[in-house]
């Protein structure tokens, strides 16, 4: 089965004020859970704002993402499947 791409919005108050060590610990915890759930889920990248994380994941389905959230303790406030991608070069194609 091909993994689908999702954007996960995580409400985490003051996440933008976390220091490097705290973010490293959070990433490590997430990676531990990802290893448990592999190969059904992969973390691509995350964007940190003041009070939210926006994460890009590849997964079989939203249920796998919710399971990761439950085990890791990081909320999955909203899960949205990516249907298509566009970029500046889309206009030239």
Number of domains: 1
The number of distinct helices, counting runs of at least 4 residues, comes to: 2
Q: Largest sheet, order of strands side by side?
A: 2-3-1-4
User: Unreliable stretches, pLDDT < 50, 5 or more residues?
Assistant: none
Strand content: 25-35%
CATH architecture: 2-Layer Sandwich
Largest sheet: 4 strands, antiparallel
Could you estimate the helical fraction of the residues in percent? 25-40%
- Oligomeric status: single chain
Question: Outline, from the CA principal axes?
Answer: globular
Average pLDDT across residues? 96
CATH superfamily: ORF SCO4226, nickel-binding ferredoxin-like monomer
The SS-based structural class is alpha+beta
Q: The CATH topology is what?
A: Alpha-Beta Plaits
Strand/helix succession = EHEEHE
Number of strands: 4
Spatial gap, N to C terminus: 29 Å
How much is the radius of gyration in Å?
A: 14 Å
Indicate the CATH class: Alpha Beta
Organism: Alsobacter metallidurans
Protein name: DUF4242 domain-containing protein
InterPro entries: SCO4226-like
Pfam families: SCO4226-like
């Amino acid at each position: 089965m091909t993994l689908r791409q999702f954007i996960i919005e995580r409400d985490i108050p003051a996440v933008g004020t976390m220091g490097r060590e705290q973010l490293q610990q959070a990433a490590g915890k997430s990676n531990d859970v990802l290893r448990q759930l592999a190969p059904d889920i992969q973390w691509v990248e995350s964007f940190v704002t003041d009070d939210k994380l926006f994460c890009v994941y590849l997964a079989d389905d939203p249920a796998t993402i919710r399971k990761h959230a439950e085990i890791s303790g990081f909320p999955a406030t909203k899960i949205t499947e990516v249907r298509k991608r566009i970029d500046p070069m889309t206009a030239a194609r």
